Amino acid sequence: MKTNLTIAIDGPAAAGKSTVAKKVAQQLSFIYVDTGAMYRALTWKALQEGIDLEDEESLSVLLAHTKISLTQSESGEGQHVILNGVDVSEEVRSQEVTNQVSYVAKHPSVRTVMVERQRDLVKDQGVVMDGRDIGTHVLPHAEVKIFMIASVEERALRRHMENQEKGYHSDLKQLQDEIRRRDEIDSQRETAPLVKADDAIELDTTSLSIEEVVQKIIEIAEKKS
Length: 225
Ligand code: CDP
Ligand code: CDP
What we know:
The chain is an alpha/beta fold. The protein is 49% helix and 16% strand.
């Protein structure tokens, strides 16, 4: 396997992108970049500062003053989100951030800066990057492009089970509605919407285990390298 392969994984909310991307990166000793965490970090900061999420100019100014770094935990399983030196990994996963992040991510000037920062994270080393526009905009020359999907019922169920494991209560129907709404905003925005790249391989994970999806992506990567 080439050691500097680029793997782009895109798809709708809760399709399993980050869980799988993290494991693929670990198995191949590649770096993993969770681009959604960067949009979440900015959203969290904007909410903290009381910034109107429709105010693109203020969000751009805020982003210019906000350093966001992603660091791997020692086990390699987790990724920490560090904002201006403070670990906000938990905060960026809050329900409030989840519900608002797509409004922040639709602003073109925010995306331009995020895309630059994401590209800067790719050195001469293998990388697995997940998000919504990786194969189409951030890394259009990625050797491996995966568009990961799963039925909305399955995606909501996965989130529901994840919440239960963490000890939170969630309503399955409400989760489905939230996922549908976020996918709609992400797919319909004008700048870099969520769309499958022409050269991406669609992977329906509805009835696949995490391990099966990981193995499929590694097989695809092996064939490409
Ligand atoms: O993990 P989950 O599917 O809940 O979302 P995420 O990957 O953390 O992304 C959160 C949000 O950030 C998405 O719903 C998009 O609005 C935005 N995003 C984006 O616009 N472009 C990316 N490359 C990654 C995320
Ligand atoms: O990053 P994204 O929002 O696409 O999804 P995720 O946060 O990686 O995955 C959502 C949930 O689905 C997690 O709890 C995963 O453990 C679970 N999952 C699963 O049950 N089966 C898969 N094939 C993939 C993910």
